[in-house]
Amino acid sequence: MEKDQAWAREVLGKVREKMEWVSEKNKDKIPYTTDADGNYDDRSDMGREWNTDDGLNWWTNGFWGGILWMLYQDTEDGKYMQIARASGRKLEKCFERYYGLHHDVGFMFLPTAVADYRLTGNEDSRRAAMHAANLLAGRFNPAGRFLRAWNQVADSDTRGWAIVDSMLNISLLFWAAEESGDPRFRQIAVLHANTVMENFIRPDGSVCHIVEFDPESGERVRSYGGQGYGEGSSWTRGQGWAVYGFANSYAHTGKQEYLDAAKRVAHYCMANIREDGIVPVDFRQPPEPAWEDSCGACVIAGGLLEIAKHVPCLEKQLYRQAAVKLLRAIADTRADWTKNCDAIVQNCTGAYHSDAHHFTMVYADYYFIEALYKLTGTEMGIW
């Protein structure tokens, strides 16, 4: 354990060194990915239509601020607070637009507004976070007991769609319940978690990405492959959302069935992770093309470390060792520590059947850095 902590502290030193210049270079941006020259894009100003979920409403736009708030807590350097807060204020413009908002407001406002409020007591940030929590709660379907995913997707009827990703978003509802004393937020989060536990997790611990319910009756209709290889497959980042999300739900509620669910999915992941620690886009994808998703590895690692907090001492090392295996693979073989690229984590993939593969994602960096802080016992505890 001490050896792993020493290693994590060493890697965090490299993170601080890189973020020192990356933060300055991109202080006016909200980045998602990098271009061919390694420069971050800017999702806060992309000329997108105001009523879409792209541009400023892009679902990953909270993770840049989250990275900066973690560094602020670590270093106490005020520049990180300044850049993070400016990023969070930009995101609040999404409330005025409204139409582009979706189930991912947890991803957007937990690492920004909630982090700001927790660290500084900023009442404006508390207001923004509570606003986001109310919007998320408003997506709840009482018949099916789930939070609706997305808005309208192309020509598909998505009124009854729920996705495993929302297991992380419901942390915003748990926070709102704890902060306001209003149990409705917690009740919605618990009902959604129960629905995911009963309808998404298969007996072997693999999970569905998307499940469709009848929006009127609430009955389960079918599942979809979503961003994985296909229906019935095992999208690795979705596995991570389930591991981390159920571990978080246990931390907020003390419900043993949530911890058991997290462990069941975690053991499926651990049984399927390659010896070299490199994670594919889908655990059930064909051998070729060998598409990877380093982001999925980082999310799974964070979930494994969260489980380790809540199990007896004899079990802790099992989950920690699996997480360290993933993180070492990233740090040693899938990280760019140079000035040739603004991002750290390389070889991420949004979806198996996308046209593009093996690029950077800001939230891969977020979960990688957060997991390192978890290893050292100095994480912020955003979720």
Question: Can you describe this structure?
Answer:
With 383 residues, the chain is mainly alpha-helical. It is built from 14 helices and five strands. It has helices at residues 2-25, 63-75, 78-91, 93-97, 105-120, 123-137, 166-169, 171-180, 183-199, 236-253, 256-272, 294-308, 313-333, 362-376, and strands spanning 140-141, 146-147, 161-163, 210-213, 220-224. The strands form two sheets. Strands 3-4-5 form a three-stranded antiparallel beta sheet, with no helix packed on it. A two-stranded antiparallel sheet has the order 1-2. Strand 4 and strand 5 (220-224) form a beta hairpin. The longest helix is centred in the N-terminal third of the chain and has 24 residues, at 2-25. The radius of gyration is 19 Å and the shape is globular. It starts with a helix and ends in a 7-residue tail after the last helix.
List the helices and strands and how they pair.
Elements: H1 2-25, H2 63-75, H3 78-91, H4 93-97, H5 105-120, H6 123-137, E1 140-141, E2 146-147, E3 161-163, H7 166-169, H8 171-180, H9 183-199, E4 210-213, E5 220-224, H10 236-253, H11 256-272, H12 294-308, H13 313-333, H14 362-376
Antiparallel strand pairs: 1-2, 3-4, 4-5
Helix pairs in contact: 1-14, 2-3, 2-5, 2-14, 3-5, 5-6, 5-8, 8-9, 10-11, 10-12, 11-12, 12-13, 12-14, 13-14
